[in-house]
Amino acid sequence: MYISQIVAQTIVDEIGREIREHVNLMDSQGYIIASTDPARIGVLHEGAKRIIREKLQELYITSEMETETTRKGINLPITIRGEIVGVVGITGEKEQVAGYGNIVRRMTEIMVGDSMAKDRHRYDRRVRYRFMEEWIGKTGAVYDRNFVERGKRLGIDIERARRALIIHFERYQELSDTQEGQRRLEEMEASIRHFVEKEKDILYLREPPKQICLMRACADARLRELAEQMICLIRGKYGETILIGIDSEEAGCTQISQICEEAEKAAESCRRGEREIVFYKELSIELFIGEISEETMKRYLGKLLPGIDDKELDTYMMIVSVYFEKEGSITQMAETLFMHKNTIQYKLKKLETISGVDIRTPRGGAVYYMALSFYKRLYGGAALIRSS
């Protein structure tokens, strides 16, 4: 069994502070991997080597037994599940250190055992993550039987119908640019993972910049409830926003690559100033908008509304947004925008004059819905908020 040097140093520092003596921790080969005396790290401790070789219960090094690498003190084996994984030593006179022996050994065994259990858990998680990455990357109607059996050994039934929920942090790029932001992202990711692990039968995968949750087939209402709980968790604890996309199959699907692709498209359609939860079935133009270049979107807006500045564009797009939100009702638009109905009519007419397209016609509605979608994609809806 392997003891991490970082963990070992943490252990000796903590024990050393408690007993106020020098403490060394040796690995299963007898080398000092951590010590309250940094000069001793990396040295082969002959006493520890003897304990491991002869399976001694303890060994006190007397003045006569001291060497250049082994000093006076008591040394005891660290035993985890019947196996000696290392040796802990306390430097000092026998009458000073003998009373600490069993206490220090037990403390060390508990701390090392806990660290190893955490390491095993992290290793198991990495194995599951690698399997899930491979699973999500597969396409086709049939899975190889060996692959199915691999999943079962990991506790993953890949033949069960599931649903996908994909999570993005709204400020992921901004946070990932700084060390403090990266730490914050790690904490938020851990919070979501811990939340998910408390739920039954939800498979979790961290795949930066997103997190994927695969769960047993269930109704949209249940998925929305879980999504809202995660949004509240992150907003309440960190003041940050997460955007969540969900697939379209209430009955679930065994083709995980398909439902993950749907959930990802739904998540991508979430933009600042809009919804935080989007189902794939709610998408329309968003299904292909990501395939259109930003340059093409800008040309479209420039051609539709030529000769206007950014502030005017913000204002007109706000009016267009409210027009669609209120389904063309001038009365409701006036109430929302705090304008007189005649003013609304005037602005819509001016918009038609600039563009040559009347938003109130079927063709005009389609043209402006596309323009609004491009505008939100380019500017994230922030300008709409500033103009309102």
Work out the helicity level: 40-55%
Supply the helix-strand structural class: alpha+beta
Number of helices: 16
Residue share in β-strands: 5-15%
Residue windows where pLDDT falls under 50 for at least 5 positions = none
**What is the CATH class name of the largest domain?**
Alpha Beta
Please outline the major beta sheet: 5 strands, antiparallel
Kindly state the number of beta strands. Answer: 10
Counting structural domains, the number is: 3
SSE series: HEEHEEEHHHEHHEEHEHEHHHHHHH
CATH architecture field of the largest domain = 2-Layer Sandwich
Strand sequence of the main sheet, in spatial order?
2-1-5-4-3
What is the CATH superfamily label of the largest domain? Reverse transcriptase/Diguanylate cyclase domain
Description:
The structure is a single chain. The protein is built from 16 helices and 10 strands. By secondary structure, it is of the alpha+beta class. The mean pLDDT is about 85. It has 3 domains: about 5-115, 2-Layer Sandwich (Beta-Lactamase), CATH 3.30.450; about 160-285, Reverse transcriptase/Diguanylate cyclase domain (Alpha-Beta Plaits); about 295-385, PucR C-terminal helix-turn-helix domain (Arc Repressor Mutant, subunit A, Orthogonal Bundle), CATH 1.10.10. Helix 11 (about 295-305) packs across helix 15 (about 360-380), helix 12 packs across helix 15 (about 360-380) and helix 13 (about 330-335) crosses helix 14. It starts with a helix and ends with a helix. The strands form 2 sheets. The protein has a 5-stranded antiparallel β-sheet, with helices on both faces. Strands 7-8-6-9-10 form a 5-stranded mixed β-sheet, with helices on both faces.
